[in-house]
Design a protein that fits this description.
The chain has 303 residues and is of the alpha/beta class. The chain has nine helices and twelve strands. Helix content is 42%, strand content 19%. α1 runs antiparallel to α2 and α7 runs parallel beside α8. It starts with a helix and ends with a helix.
Length: 303
């Protein structure tokens, strides 16, 4: 278990690294230079902003002497990292597709993993100047008006000042709100939504890119996040998990109501209807076969 001094030191470093990386990303996002887009082996895009943010975070966090596993870093073999009990897990630019679309829905995700569980989570949303952070056992917090800063050097009192503990509300929205990805939905996503709407027909859908969906969960702005079928990458979800695990009541599970069971009378009627349909189908097949045989006989007789 990390002591308070160690935890504070690591939080300060993650916090400042996220803001500095956000500043570099915003420079590229608002600048005139080409984004230098390439496609990775998993068929997802990577830009100069992803690469620069990775290098910046890697360099800044090196002073902690804690190893780093990054979405945009080199692939580390399991044998190399199997004994890590403390390491940084980073996605330097989550929401690259949203970055390229120009909608501002991208984040910087930094998590500290301790014994394979999220211990600290920081998510910075540079375009709207919001930062979310969480500490295991201490809750989840939001700080607004945090502008991108290449020289960010917040100390602990500055980090904690003017923060708001999440969630922002103590009850579910009416109607409930469902967050979905803006760019990664699948048929399974919409099937899940349909099941939820069976019990909550007025539920509203909120499309959102990147890990900011989890920030909305933490706030209580939405009740449910419905992902697609593809498994999320560990490096993408670690900071989100740290935040959501420490947020107490903020993640509300809203179960879709099961379809109402049919009465015995309705079941019998349905079975009878199926039997009638099956019988009619059999009669149709039989008639078609008879007509075909008659036609074949007629052809043979004509010859």
């Amino acid at each position: 278990m990390l002591n308070k001094e160690q935890t504070d030191f690591l939080l300060v470093n993650a916090y400042n690294a996220a803001i500095r990386a956000g500043a570099r990303i915003i420079d590229i996002y608002t600048g005139d230079a080409d984004f230098a887009v390439d496609i990775k082996s998993d068929h997802t895009p990577i830009t100069i902003a992803d690469r620069d943010a990775h290098e910046l975070i890697k360099k800044y966090l090196s002073q902690t002497r804690v190893p780093l596993l990054s979405e945009e870093g080199r692939d580390l073999l399991y044998e190399e990292r199997r004994n890590w009990d403390l390491f940084w897990m980073v996605d330097p630019l989550d929401g690259t597709k949203e970055f390229l679309k120009g909608n501002g829905e991208f984040t910087v995700n930094i998590a500290l993993m301790h014994n394979n569980e999220p211990y600290i989570g920081v998510i910075y949303v540079p375009y709207i100047h919001k930062i979310y952070f969480a500490l295991k056992g201490a809750g989840c917090y939001l700080k607004t008006d945090v502008e991108p800063d290449h020289e960010a050097l917040f100390d602990l009192p500055q980090i904690w000042s003017d923060t708001t503990r999440l969630p922002l509300c103590d009850k579910a929205n009416e109607p409930i709100r469902i967050a979905v990805s803006r760019s990664h939905n699948t048929d399974e996503t919409f099937e899940h939504i349909a099941r939820i709407k069976a019990g909550h027909p007025a539920a509203e859908i909120v499309e959102q890119g990147s890990s900011f969906k989890f920030c909305l969960l933490a706030e209580g702005t939405v009740e449910i996040y419905t992902p697609g079928k593809a498994p999320a990458r560990k490096k993408v979800t670690a900071a989100k998990t740290a935040k959501d695990k420490t947020a107490g009541k903020l993640v509300r599970t809203v179960k879709a109501k099961a379809p109402a069971k049919k009465s015995v009378k309705e079941e019998k009627a349905a079975k009878a209807e199926e039997a009638v349909k099956a019988e009619k189908k059999a009669e149709t097949v039989k008639k078609r076969a008879t007509v075909k045989n008659d036609n074949n006989k007629a052809d043979r007789n004509s010859k």
